[in-house]
Amino acid sequence: PMEEAPGFHTQWLLPYLRELSAFRSTHRAFREGDAFFLANDPDVLLILRSLKEEAVLTVVNRAGTKRRFRLEAQGHKAEGLIEARSASIIVLSENKDGCKKPAAAEK
Questions:
Q1: Selection from 28, 48, 29 nearest residue 37 by Cα
Q2: pLDDT, tens digit, for every residue of 36-95?
Q3: I need a surface site. Which of 5, 59, 63, 86 has the fewest CB within 10 A?
């Protein structure tokens, strides 16, 4: 099982995957948008998904400490601090249906 895999961080990965699954159903950018992968830190991965007016950023920190991230790409900007060994989803722009940003999405 996944919980027994060496180095597998279930305390943050599984909740993130649940959140990602919920976002896929409400944000077309996750399902159909272009994907841009960026890394401005060896332990922090930024994934920008965009489709028309909607853009969603996923930030993954595999480091054992909090890390800063910064995005300036494809006409979008974002920066912040992400907790150690965590992932976060940030809505940068919304579609015409007015998808809401979840309360815990941005740290």
A1: 48
A2: 999 989 999 999 999 988 999 999 999 999 999 999 988 899 999 999 988 888 999 875
A3: 5
